[in-house]
Design a protein that fits this description.
This protein is mainly α and 290 residues long. It has helices spanning 4-18, 37-62, 69-75, 86-99, 102-115, 119-132, 140-143, 147-159, 191-194, 235-252; strands at residues 168-169, 174-176, 179-181, 186-187, 254-257, 265-268, 271-274, 279-282. The strands form 4 sheets. Strands 1-4 form a two-stranded antiparallel sheet. Helix 1 (4-18) runs antiparallel to helix 2 and helix 5 (102-115) packs across helix 8.
Length: 290
């Protein structure tokens, strides 16, 4: 198959280019040579596509199936019983490997950063994970019982949304505060500011996961995945991934932030990510190594 290191290197470079304002400026979508910004995007996309199509072809020819996502997609069929085309498989893989990877990883960084600065919250999660999971695997049934961890993730994404705003093209005139926005224009609600409205979240700057316990989120006030019919299709998957990783971290390791200070916000293209996050893993018991 594709060498993991080679694919990771391609996808890393692709993510660095793809998470750029360049993609949102059609006037710059001109290939002016191999070193031009859009030229680099096109060539890197072609290299990545070639690697993915080669793996799809290899899997089809060999008939090999495992317990990975590509195996599931190769066996999937539509309503008419037709399998996915190579192009559809490529699109699904790109979505999972890029859109379904970097943003979730960034959300996890913010969660770890916040947890290690909130001993009260970390202690409560540790107790919940111990009571629900013990030393067992984080199965879907057990994960559903980690209600406080779920509230913590929602509060992390409230204060540290990975994407700070979302754009929608309006199909009919929209009136906002006495001003009319014509149909066809884009409006861009600021997720970062919406999550800090005192009207929606009293004491909004405080990290307080309890505000989400036993309550359904208001989709017009909590929107780290966007909102409406165009909300991120991977929302449930991302929340599940974050639960699995955080529960496993709490279960298996003890961490502390190097320096003990909150990590400043940095910009990575269109996303808010930790500028630097240095962690130290400590031994869980005297008999274990660092």
């Amino acid at each position: 198959g594709i060498a993991a290191s080679g694919l990771a290197e391609l996808l890393g470079r692709y993510a660095d280019l793809g998470n750029s304002w360049l993609l949102f400026l059609p006037a710059l979508h001109k290939d002016l040579g191999p070193k031009s910004p859009w030229g680099r995007v096109r060539r890197l996309r072609a290299e990545t596509d070639a690697a993915l199509y080669a793996e799809i072809a290899r899997r089809r020819e060999s008939g090999h199936r495992g317990d990975d996502i590509l195996s599931l997609l190769l066996d999937a069929t539509d309503e008419a019983g037709e399998p996915l085309t190579d192009r559809e498989l490529r699109d699904e893989l790109i979505t999972l490997l890029l859109a379904g990877h970097e943003t979730t990883a960034t959300g996890l960084e913010w969660a770890v950063d916040r947890l290690l600065l909130e001993p009260r919250v970390l202690a409560r999660i540790t107790d919940e994970v111990r009571d629900v999971l013990g030393e067992g695997e984080p199965s879907p049934e057990r994960l559903a019982k980690l209600e406080y961890l779920d509230a913590v993730i929602k509060e992390v994404l409230r204060l540290r949304p990975v994407v700070p705003n979302v754009a929608r093209r309006i199909t009919e005139p929209l009136e906002i505060e006495g001003e009319t926005v014509p149909a066809g224009y884009f409006v861009a609600p600021c997720i970062y500011l919406a999550h800090r409205r005192e009207e929606s979240y009293p004491d909004a700057l405080r990290f307080y996961p309890e505000r989400f316990l036993g309550k359904k989120v208001d989709p017009y006030a909590w929107l780290p995945f966007g909102g409406g019919a165009r909300r991120c299709i991977g929302m449930a998957f991302a929340m599940l991934e974050m639960k699995v990783v955080l529960a496993t971290l709490v279960q298996k390791a003890r961490l502390r932030v190097h320096g003990g200070k909150a990590t400043p916000i940095g910009r990575r293209g269109i996303t808010f990510s930790p500028r630097t996050l240095r962690l130290v893993r400590e031994a869980r018991a005297a008999s274990q190594g660092p």
